[in-house]
Protein 1
Amino acid sequence: MFQLSKFNTLISLVLQGNKNWAWAPVLLARVSLGLFFAISGGHKLLVPARSEALVKVMMEAGIPFPEFMSIFLASVEFFGGMFLIVGFLSTFCAIALTIAMLVAIFTVELHTIPQGLSVLNWLSYFLYLPQVMYVLIFGWLIATGPGRHSIDHFIARALSIENGTFARGATGSTAV
């Protein structure tokens, strides 16, 4: 019976994973994407050659007010990335960065895919774009939340918020 129990546990791990470790990939994804965007945004803000290149790309893409929009985008990347690293306003940052990546996909990246491809080949090129993967990971982070190793988690605990609702008080009513 003991051996069967270990086998069942192994099968369960293979088929369903281990929920006790679910925090680890959330933390790794949030921090690594945060670092990437903080560094990228910082370079666009502080390195003149990067700033000029971004303005040029925005002009070529036909984005209005390219000088302002380049500073805005770089700021969203930098501050959104910094906040993601520590897990502060994570959902808001993930939404803002998702919008930035969708704009990049539709204004710049789609034009890099060769014309005349079959649907599967076009999809292969599209899914290979890093911005697509960022959007998917941000969607996952929005759905799962920033994890227990985040400022957002500590704020939610301090406010007695669990799973999107306020914790029930002694009377059984929901605090508003």
Protein 2
Amino acid sequence: MGIKLTQQEQEKLEIINKTLRGELSNGQAARMLNVSPRQVKRLKKKVREEGQDGVVHRLKRKTSNHHIDYMIKEKALAVITKHYADFRPTFATEKLQEHHSIVISPETTRLWMIEGKLWKVRKQKQPVYRSWRPRKEYLGELEQFDGSYHYWFEDRFVDAYDNPIEVCLLASIDDATGKITKAMFAENEGVHAVFTFWMEYVQERGKPFAIYLDAFSTYKINHKAALDNKELMTQFQRAMQSLSIRLITAHSAEAKGRIERLFQTLQDRLIKEMRLANINTPEEGNSFLSEVFLPKFNKQFAVRAAREGNVHKVLLQFENEQLSHIFSIQETRRVNLDFTIQFKNNWYQLTEIQPTTVRPLEKVIMETWLDLSVHIILKGHELTYLLLPGRPKKQRMKQPIILTTHTLNYKPPPDHPWKKRILPIRG
């Protein structure tokens, strides 16, 4: 039984049969088939000898010279089904080579996974035209920063009721190189977590020239009053201004597409890498990120910057000394008449001797550091205090008028300038 002919092969056979019957000349057939007259003669000879199979290409249904052995295909599909069933074809290809010494192309893996019903062919979305912004030229010129809430540890990190816990991954990616400069798991995208992230960042790498982020309330005041009050700032804006780091706010996800696409990639690759490495908690995840995943990821996906050089600015000595103050949550409170301060349901009693003069009703800055310790700042000086067990009772005894660098019952020595007699100047 001959090979079933395609429509094109049937048309070719009909033309050759007409030339054999003398209805067409070799030249006419050559023109109709877009081949040379000599080729028509060869086809006529094949059809006489083999019948309709004479118009079929000799390599049809034959095994390709580049054919991959069927046993390799069976082994690869068995491994993917067992270990990488929910992996994307490209990622599965990398794991086959890395852990099982099976070297094939991602497209081959994709075709095999489709045959094995492990991958579903997806219709390509209609492309939407957007004007691409060129990358920055130098490393450290612009960092894109954001947080992503996700079940990063799947069902391996659960609460008391065995419900998976959603964790926030904070990450920054360099615009010039596509390098993940830092990533960290945190409970949320709040001020404390973001401050911890950027305090570690500037200590490790220095200060980037600018940070590109979204309009989330941690980073930008969204209240309508901010339109008229340019000095109204979030804690994060204040801290970055102290370090002379420029903040650029994006008003759409597409505007900071590099970090958005990064999280899509990490939600695929990072989750599966941690599953394979048996990483089950955020603490283990942070170690895995810094020691294993980020170096490997950046080596594979980072690109060379347009220009050589790193424009991260080194922390100045006074900035390094003030980091705990800069990355603190700062709130304003007023000193009471008895020199106590109420702050977050606690009462603080200022001691009698202070590094600067303190008057009642004066405003002070209450700083909550990342270690949750409280520091009271006035005119650049840190005031000393005692934490009271509760609200102080009103005292009838006379309160000091001010607190200063010495006690108010101070008596100057006999040779003090205050006690020296000043003689009048005579002409």
